[in-house]
Automatic annotation (TrEMBL):
One matching Pfam family: DNA_processg_A
Entry's family note: Belongs to the DprA/Smf family.
GO terms, biological process: DNA-mediated transformation
Protein name (database record): DNA-protecting protein DprA
The Smf/DprA SLOG domain, residue ranges: 60-266
Top-level lineage group: Bacteria
Length: 334
């Protein structure tokens, strides 16, 4: 009875919620005429939105559209409508969220890349296109030639942060961006919290790779638990602020992930991990890292010069099996 644009207007201008709109949809054409004719503000809004959508590549779907993601219908507070830019058809594929802190460390970046590479073989990666872990998750999926979905805390025609313009364009070309806000709406503090329920709602599970206790990623994890989604977290250094959030999640029941295979096994997939070949010198240094150590300590352990050790450590880092931590020590990551 009501068009998708009219549903947006009724929700946005008249402040009607999902259940109230559902009731209106069950009435005859008389109620439609009454609503539209008695609200000049609504009429102005509808004309503006119709003109905007006609001139743009933005697609609108509502809760009652066939294309609406089934996973979102299950959550307690589904968005009444979504504006989408890009390939909306991937929204009914199985998705997995990878989220975390904006203030990522080299450790956070490394584990996000390593685990996302494997997850994106089986799921569409969902995140929020924020600085830090979100951007790394999107970038990794794109580099693996896999689609990715960004759920924005602003309109789909607003790039935030602006420095992510190139990433935004690539996501639209190889996946989609979506939002429950009007296409031209700027971000506000509360909109990022609200959009987090959509990130988790779209997903089969979520992984928090690095996050402090004040990170918005923990809000996403809370939404995920309320929605009955699986929550995974990567443990980190107990002395590091950026790992306190993930360690907290694990202490409170999240599944710990120390290898991509942990998630693959949980969902019954086989890991595609490539075997890394090491020569004898590399094996010797790798085996010396039974615990985090400095280059000097490794040099003493294997009785080789510091220069030789530093060269070997660089090779091991490039092969993705060793990570240099913020405190200058090295640790294994596979």
């Amino acid at each position: 009875m009501f068009t998708d644009v009219e549903i947006v207007g009724i929700h946005h201008v008249l402040k009607k919620g999902l259940s109230e709109i559902e009731e209106l949809l069950n009435y005859g054409t008389g109620i439609k005429k009454s609503i539209l004719n008695s609200n000049p503000e609504l009429d102005i809004f509808l004309r503006r939105l119709e003109r905007y959508l006609e001139k743009s590549s933005v697609r609108l779907i509502t809760y009652w559209s066939e294309e609406y993601p089934e996973a979102l219908r299950e959550i307690p507070d589904p968005p009444v409508y979504l504006f989408i830019k890009g390939n909306f058809e991937i929204l009914n594929r199985e998705m997995f969220a990878v989220v975390g802190t904006r203030k990522l460390t080299p450790y956070g970046k490394t584990v996000t890349v390593q685990i996302t590479k494997e997850i994106c073989r089986h799921f569409v990666i969902v995140s929020g296109m924020a600085y830090g872990i979100d951007s790394v998750a999107h970038e990794t999926a794109l580099l693996e030639n896999c689609p990715t979905v960004a759920v924005l805390g602003c309109g789909v025609d607003v790039v935030y942060p602006k420095s992510n313009l190139n990433l935004y364009k690539r996501i639209v070309e190889n996946g989609c961006v979506l939002s429950e806000y009007l296409p031209w709406e700027p971000p506000k503090k509360y909109t990022f919290v609200q959009r987090n329920r959509i990130i988790s709602g779209l997903s089969t599970g979520i992984l928090v790779t690095e996050a402090g206790l004040d990170s918005g990623a923990l809000i996403t994890a809370r939404f995920a638990l309320e929605q009955g989604r699986d929550v995974f977290a990567v443990p980190g250094d107990i002395m590091r602020e950026s790992s306190k959030g993930t360690n907290y999640l694990i202490k409170n029941g999240a599944f710990p992930v120390t290898d991509p295979e942990d998630i693959m096994k949980y969902y019954g997939f086989k890991s595609h991990k490539k075997l890394v070949e090491l020569n004898e010198a590399e094996k010797e240094v790798y085996n010396a890292l039974s615990e985090p150590r400095t280059a000097e300590e490794i040099s003493e352990t294997v009785a080789k010069s510091l220069t030789e050790i530093l060269v070997t450590l660089t090779v091991l880092e490039l092969k993705g099996v060793v990570l240099r931590r913020d405190d200058g020590t090295y640790q294994r990551i596979v």
